[in-house]
Amino acid sequence: MNIPFRMQTVVAALGLAGVALFSTAHAQIKIAMVVPTTGPLTQYGDMVKEGAMTAVEMANAAGGIGGKKIELVPVDDACEPKQGPVAANRVVNSKIGYVIGPVCSGASIAAAPIYNNEGVVVVTPSATSPALTDGKNYHFIFRTIGRDDQQGPAAAKFIIEKIKPKKVAVLHDKQSYGQGIASSVRDDLKKANVPVALFEGINAGDSDYSAVITKLKSAGVDFVYYGGYHPEMGLLLRQAAEQGLKVKMMGPEGVGNPEVNAIAGPAVEGMLVTLPADFAANPKNAAVVKAFQDKKRNASGAFQLTSFAAAQSLLAAIKAAGDNPAKVADWMHKSNVDTVLGPVSWNKQGDLNSFDFQVFQWHKDGSKSIAK
InterPro entries, from UniProt (predicted)? Predict the structure, then answer.
């Protein structure tokens, strides 16, 4: 079954009745936004909030689902695995049946058993680790983003075909997301007989990576892939430049954060990053992009439109199946939804059947362009 759901026709598609975002009075359909509002990764939470808020604002501008109103409820998990279950219990105790988030893979993995056991429908727009869903037999956990084993091969393919390095170092932050995607890239490089001279973890949160940079220099690598987030990538770029290591570096969508520019300075120029395709450039999404712009939000960030699609998916499912999380999950497993990402559908374990990752080149002015 295919449910048309372009937000250009959101009024017709949803048939909603008006309510202000975050209104606490008479809100009958609550969706939790489980995002980091504290800690070093709050910008990723901001991206997800922008997407979910814009989608719900557009929906609420025209009303409610079956006369019911929609409310977004922010819940902080700091992107910390230890805080993931705490946030999940807050959602459950608040009797909220739907979640957009969690944002980070580690927190998502830790929280998923609680959500699934309690029958809470989760749609994460940003957690990419295969470990979230592989072998878990979850019924209530979904994504509107691809997995690391889709993103990693896209990165490796670009390295193999476009960079053609002589010797590569693959670094990671020792965490679920970073180490998982770094391992995927390493494995694909090895299959293509690209020498991986170094595969090593660094400690997230450190301020000095001179020891690993010395190792990179000693190993004679001419390309570095880093699996992790922007704070460490920014330091690696800056400190490598300071120590005279002139190599191209690449990372996953976790490094694609404007804050990396402030950390790395001019050394950020030319950083390669895999990101979701630029769905904001699709003319079919013009009305949605304008809605972002009207609120001074950026539709072209890493997770804004995957989050928008998460909200679209939940609202379409609630409209079709009713405000019942079990029926919503059943409907999502067997249906297609037309979203800002294009038509999306899920396999038995809640992963997207397909997703488009692209390689971008990052620039010191904060812009990005398709890497050639």
Answer: Leu-bd (IPR028081), Leu_Ile_Val-bd (IPR000709), Peripla_BP_I (IPR028082)
SS3 251: strand
Task: Give backbone dihedrals phi and psi of 42, rounded to 5 degrees, phi first.
Answer: -65, -25
Q: What is the DSSP annotation of 120-159?
A: -EEEESS---GGGTTTT--SSEEESS--HHHHHHHHHHHI
Distance CA 188, CA 166 (A): 15
Model confidence pTM above 0.90: no
Q: Is 178 exposed, middle or buried (0-12, 13-18, 19+ CB in 10 A)?
A: buried
SS3 (DSSP) at 113: helix
CA 230 – CA 258 distance, rounded (Å): 9
3-state secondary structure of 203: coil
* Cα(222)–Cα(206) distance, integer angstroms: 24
On the question of a cis peptide bond just before residue 40, with omega within 30 degrees of 0, the verdict is: no
Phi-psi region of 369 (alpha: psi -120 to 50; beta: other; left: phi over 0): beta
Give the DSSP H or E segment for 227: strand 223-227
Q: How far apart are CA 320 and CA 309, in angstroms?
A: 16
Helix/strand/coil percentages in the chain, nearest 5 = 45, 20, 35
How far is it, in rounded angstroms, from Cα 6 to Cα 337?
A: 9
Profile the chain (372 residues) by mean pLDDT over runs of 10 residues: 37 32 59 96 95 94 82 97 98 98 97 98 96 96 95 95 96 93 96 96 95 96 96 97 96 92 96 94 96 95 96 97 97 97 96 94 92 90
Residue 348 to residue 350: CA distance in whole angstroms: 6
d(CA 270, CA 260): 12
Cα(44)–Cα(122) distance, rounded to whole angstroms? 17
Instruction: Tell me how far apart the terminal alpha carbons of the chain are, to the nearest angstrom.
Output: 38
Backbone angles phi, psi at 199, to 5 degrees: -130, 110
